[in-house]
Amino acid sequence: MTLPYSLTEPAGAALPLVVDSPHSGLLHAETLPLAAPPEALLSGWDAYVDQLFAHAPRVGGTLLCADFPRWLVDVNRARDDIDPDLIDGAMPYEVRPTDKSGRGMGVLRRLALPGVPVYAATLSPHMAEYLLKTYYDPYHAALSGLLAQRHARWGAVWHLDCHSMKSRGNAMNVDNGAARPDFVVSNGDGSTCSAAFIELVAECLRSLGYKVAINWPYKGAQLIRAYADPAQRRHSLQIEINRALYMDEATLAQHAGFAVLRGHLDELLEHIAAHIHTELRR
């Protein structure tokens, strides 16, 4: 079986640092009744985020990247966050739709953009479960396994869950119409990593000249909430990057800002690695 993700191990001495990019993939083999045009589907793509954090293995981190697109399966949602209106029949278990699926952004996306449905027809329960077993389950098994292995070895683990965001919120977002900062860093209002760690990341980015918001308009979703436990030294942090910093949002092409941002994120990863070395000596 071909795994639906790419994994890059540390290039040298390993650290208990896991960096994941869950929305930077584009590959899938399914034939589905799509209604949304390609440009609408690509609007949810965290373009080039895997490349922006490619330095992680060089500082001792492990880099996990989804190969499949977010519109197909969004691993940053709970597995049962399914919009029942998207399914033709009942799933083999109780679904628990949240406000995310209500706005078209559940684990199986209903909307690509406001008013633009992903699918021309509902999905069968069999197809829905097939997609989850094929894409969602292996990705979560990989991430949870990496975090558990590193925590078992070092007694601590740090996890960066990395995303990009539109420069302005739309009608599917809680900040509809609002201009966004350069970065949003999130820890579920303090529940997924220590205050010291989120402040270290935010201050490093600010020192590089960026505007940084904390826990708004994003608080962090399933990937940081599922496996974090700061009291047990399991720290997970979500990072959202404003796409306008490094790409043309209309053409999806990288611009000159990409190299600058990539260099700054290399610095951030070096700073985080130094912090982890310090914490492990305590």
TrEMBL record:
Keyword Transmembrane helix present in the record's keywords: the answer is no
A Pfam match is: FGase
Enzyme's top EC category: hydrolase
Name any one GO molecular function: N-formylglutamate deformylase activity
The protein's matches in InterPro entries, at most eight in alphabetical order, are given as: N-FG_amidohydro (IPR007709)
Question: Please, which domain of life does this record's source organism belong to?
Answer: Bacteria
Which protein are we looking at?
N-formylglutamate deformylase
